[in-house]
Amino acid sequence: MFFSGSASVRSLRATALSAVRRPLRVFASPVAAGFPSPADDFVEGRLDLNEHLIPHPAATFIVRVAGESMINAGIHPGDMLIVDRSIEAKTGDIVIAVLDGELTVKRLCRSGGGWRLAAENPDFPDLPIDGDRDCVIWGVVTGAVRRFERR
After folding, report:
1. Does the residue 32 lie in any domain?
2. Known catalytic residues?
């Protein structure tokens, strides 16, 4: 998806990531987030995270988040977003966009007769996509990877 304005994006590159396939065990019983449940000694099978999170490897890239404009969508600074370029972006999708030469992650929204990139934090403004700006949607965010800090 491309929105044209007066500026242009010249050189943007994505770095390929090498995938290491190490299937992990998946337990059949869900883990209780409320009251503890008895542990089962049953492993359901194995889960390949690449297969589960990246259905289109040739069209997928990962980008690290900086900033807090998408906190209310569950996207935090330091998260690694999984972005699929093979999916056509539609209104409501969280997307990676190049707006006036800068990468940003926002929710793609219809706004009257046009479009805007919406922040998910009231402290940040939405970004209208109008005739004065160039905007290229690089892909749709399909997942996130986050490491939890140990206390």
Report:
1. no
2. 69, 106
From 142, 118, 130, 138, select the one nearest 1 (Cα to Cα). Answer: 138
Cα–Cα distance measured from residue 62 to residue 19, given in angstroms and rounded to the nearest whole number: 12
8 Å CB contact between 82 and 144: yes
pTM of the model: 0.75
Place of tokens 């906190």: 71
How does pLDDT run along the chain (151 residues), one tens digit per residue? 655 443 333 333 444 455 556 665 666 666 667 666 555 555 567 777 888 888 888 899 999 999 999 999 999 999 999 999 999 999 999 999 999 889 999 999 998 888 999 999 999 999 999 888 889 999 999 999 999 889 8
Range of the domain at 121: 2-11+55-145
Q: For 53-112, list the strands marked E by DSSP.
A: 60-64, 80-84, 94-99, 102-111
* CATH number, residue 139: 2.10.109.10
119, two tokens = 């922040």
